[in-house]
């Protein structure tokens, strides 16, 4: 076993600092086996949170570059995939806690006071790194303002505040990914080149036409099958088409980032788009794993303490269920709603630019 840069004459215990680590599970306070297990599960989660922050900081730094070298993308994907696996592992880790009976939990719960996972600053840090906006949080929560107050009286909270402020001052992963996809070459036209605006607009309009046509066909099919309310189905398709227009042309202007996302998802088989789509897939997969982890937390809590108010003062399970509705990478999810089937996509122009032609 060798350490970072050391000549490596370690013992196992020294390398991992086990004596210090193994003194932190509350035995000095005489905790019960149930409570020690409760502490250990929390601590392992917090250790994983620490690693998640490290992984996501790497991804943020790669993607926030003005020019992201192509060869950096596989590294970003590797960090994202590891983070996803950590969330999957953590989602399964709740089952260990579920061995705690409701009575077993009540036996030490009052001793927690107001301590709650709600105060996990590492969780807030990785949410901010990913790009969860305050206005999308329940209760309009602002993690920074909470720590600003705490930092007035505590050095330790001042350090936490400084970390959170540093993350907030830098672009989030969501900001960076949007900036990056906005530079996607569309129909062979590169962002900022002469005539790019009109190429992109023509592409978006062609896609929207196809989307509209398919929606109308589907509505007609439904009325043909004697749907109970054909008008309602037609209205629904019309409003979903309007939503597609609003997505691609917010305020009437084409969003190049969303057009880029649409292009990548629509023509994902093109060789030049392999890494972009792999990166986007990795982000969506990560957010899905995180949502499932939140959901599994709520189910564990419901099983152990029903619908009591949380020690952090929230409504408990209802609050946790509501947080599993959070979506950070909204544009990456929303584009899925407006895709059209492959044979209805606008015909690809400049196929050779993407390393692909029909003769291939
Ligand atoms: C018996 C075990 C547990 C129960 C009953 C429980 C319950 C709760 C409740 C009710 C909340 C909502 C906030 C509040 O009002 O307190 C919460 C939030 C939270 N819990 Fe747990 N929890 C448990 C275990 C864990 C563990 C092991 C972790 C791992 C670190 C954890 C992490 C969190 C986090 C990060 C939040 C904040 C979620 C957010 O605001 O998005 N919880 N928990």
Can I get a quick summary?
Helix content is 61%, strand content 0%. It is an all-alpha fold.
Q: Give the distinct bound molecules.
A: protoporphyrin IX containing FE
**Shape assignment:** globular
Instruction: Calculate the mean pLDDT score and round it.
Output: 94
Major sheet: none
Describe the structure.
The chain has 360 residues and is an all-alpha fold. It has a domain at 26-192 and 257-337: Methane Monooxygenase Hydroxylase, Chain G, domain 1 (Up-down Bundle). 61% of the residues lie in helices and 0% in strands. It has helices spanning 12-15, 18-21, 33-63, 73-97, 102-109, 121-130, 143-151, 155-169, 173-181, 196-224, 230-248, 256-266, 274-305, 317-323, 330-337. Helix 7 (143-151) packs antiparallel against helix 8 and helix 9 (173-181) packs across helix 12 (256-266). It is globular and about 70 Å long. The two termini are 49 Å apart. 23% of the residues are buried. Protoporphyrin IX containing FE is lined by residues 41-42, 45-46, 97, 100, 105, 116-118, 120, 123, 297, 301, 304-305, 310-314, 316, 319-320, 323.
């Amino acid at each position: 076993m060798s350490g970072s840069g050391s000549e490596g004459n370690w013992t196992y215990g020294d390398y991992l600092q086990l004596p210090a680590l193994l003194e932190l599970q509350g035995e000095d306070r005489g905790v019960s086996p149930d409570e020690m297990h409760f502490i250990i599960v929390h601590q392992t989660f917090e250790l994983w949170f620490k690693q998640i922050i490290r992984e996501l900081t790497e991804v943020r730094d790669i993607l926030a570059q003005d020019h992201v070298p192509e060869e950096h993308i596989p590294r970003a994907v590797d960090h994202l995939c590891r983070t996803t696996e950590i969330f999957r592992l953590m989602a399964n880790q709740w089952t260990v806690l579920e061995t705690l009976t409701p009575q077993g939990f009540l036996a030490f719960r009052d001793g927690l006071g107001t301590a709650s996972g709600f105060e996990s600053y590492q969780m807030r840090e990785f949410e901010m790194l990913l790009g969860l906006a305050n206005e999308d949080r329940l209760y309009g929560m602002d993690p920074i303002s909470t720590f600003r107050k705490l930092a007035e009286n505590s050095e330790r909270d001042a350090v936490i505040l400084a970390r959170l402020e540093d993350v907030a001052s830098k672009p989030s992963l969501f900001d960076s990914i949007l900036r990056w996809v906005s530079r996607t070459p569309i129909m062979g036209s590169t962002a900022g080149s002469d005539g790019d605006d009109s190429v992109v607009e023509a592409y978006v309009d062609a896609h929207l036409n196809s989307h509209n046509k398919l929606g109308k066909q589907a509505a007609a099919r439904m009325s043909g099958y004697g749907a109970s309310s054909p008008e309602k189905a037609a209205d629904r398709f019309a409003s979903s088409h309007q939503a597609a227009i609003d997505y691609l042309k917010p305020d009437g202007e084409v969003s190049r980032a969303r057009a880029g996302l649409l292009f990548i998802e629509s023509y994902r088989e093109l060789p030049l788009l392999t890494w972009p789509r792999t990166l986007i897939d990795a982000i969506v997969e990560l957010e899905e794993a995180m949502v499932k982890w939140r959901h599994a937390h709520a189910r564990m809590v419901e099983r152990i303490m029903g619908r009591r108010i949380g020690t952090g003062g929230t409504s408990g399970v209802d609050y946790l269920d509501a947080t599993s509705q959070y979506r950070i990478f909204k544009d990456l999810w929303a584009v899925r709603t407006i895709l059209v089937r492959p044979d209805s996509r606008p015909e690809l122009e400049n196929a050779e630019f993407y390393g692909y032609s029909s003769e291939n």
